[in-house]
Design brief:
By secondary structure, this protein is of the alpha+beta class. It has 3 domains: 11-107, no CATH class; 113-181, OB fold (Dihydrolipoamide Acetyltransferase, E2P), CATH 2.40.50; 184-241, no CATH class. It is 44% helix and 14% strand. It has 10 helices and 6 strands; from the N terminus they run ααααααββββββαααα. Strands 1, 2, 3, 4, 5 and 6 form a 6-stranded antiparallel beta sheet that branches. The radius of gyration is 18 Å and the shape is globular. It starts with a helix and ends with a helix.
Length: 245
């Protein structure tokens, strides 16, 4: 196993979510796209991703699993390989790099929904979300005993960031993890979202910056108290992205 791959192993503790098989499948894809020529690609991708989030060893341990999972999914679905200008996901499907079942499985996930969402309500194990960038309603299947969500106390009005994948019934989604933006930054996030709704080509870069705000903020609690819970990182986020045409 390469050193690059070792650095990105995600949480291997028992998982209970409906996304278990997908988390394992994504890990398999990482193994495919970290060998040979792809090892260089993986190292390059890490450099790009962690330039935004800060060096991986600086990330607090309790959030490292989610950051690793974020990187894994970004690498598979968003990073463009130098050797083909395709994402690993598209390369896997086009070049039939797995079994027919695996290729079909990944092809069904190409049109995932990575976005910012507002929690509207929770009924049973379903969370009703509104996609703030495209305005559509989504239903997320949620399990309280899933370690990936153990810190999330679901409340209406929360702003969350997640990559949602459709379940076979086409009406519900699962996620391998969810990030929660602080209530104190709701105004900042909504301001940027309002300006980015029509900016389709810029969504991914903005979302990665939003993730940067989350990860860096989680390690800056003392700084947040010093500025009355208004985080300068989010202020820079608004300055950089609001009113962007």
């Amino acid at each position: 196993m390469s050193e690059a791959l070792k650095l990105e192993k995600v949480n291997e503790s028992p998982r209970f979510s409906l996304g278990l098989e997908w988390t394992d499948f994504f890990q398999k894809l990482l193994e495919v796209f970290s060998r040979g020529l792809y090892e260089r690609e993986l190292l390059r991708a890490k450099g790009i991703f962690f330039e935004k989030l800060g060096r991986s060893h600086e990330i607090r341990q309790e959030y490292y699993d989610s950051v690793s999972q974020s990187f894994l999914e970004w690498y598979i679905f968003d990073y463009r390989l130098e050797v083909s200008a395709k994402t690993p996901a598209v390369a896997f499907v086009v070049n039939r790099m797995g079994t027919p079942e695996e290729v079909e499985k990944l092809e069904s996930a190409l049109f995932h929904h990575w976005s910012l969402f507002e929690v509207e309500k929770k009924i049973g194990n379903e969370i009703f979300l509104k996609d703030l960038l495209i305005g559509k309603a989504r239903k997320l299947i949620y399990e309280d005993n899933d370690p990936s969500f153990r810190l999330w106390k679901v409340e209406p009005g929360q702003i969350v960031q997640a990559r949602l994948f459709e379940l076979p019934d086409g009406d519900r989604h699962f996620a391998t993890h969810v990030w929660l933006h602080g209530d104190s930054e709701r105004e900042s996030v909504m301001k940027v979202v309002a300006d980015f709704r029509p900016a389709w080509g810029l969504h991914r870069e903005m979302l990665r910056h939003a993730l940067e705000c989350l990860v860096r903020s989680l390690g800056l609690r003392e700084q947040m108290v010093a500025v009355s819970n208004r985080n300068w990182i989010y202020q820079d986020f608004v300055k950089r992205h609001a009113q962007k045409k």
